[in-house]
Input
Amino acid sequence: MTTMIKNNGMRFFALHKAVGIRSWLRDKVYREYEELLEAEILEKPLPEHVAIIMDGNRRYAEKIGVSTK
Output
């Protein structure tokens, strides 16, 4: 029984450690990716216009009874 508790404790510790390493690695990769995207965006000029594309949501809203006004 004691051996089983020790083995399960070791497995839990190893699993807990692996999850921690995975989280750390994921956070590092996301941080690097966000920095890369930000640098790419900032090196280009900002757009001078905004476009709006109407896609029929008003008709859908009216169909299901939601007010569009």
User: Anything to note?
Assistant: DSSP finds two helices and no strands in the chain.
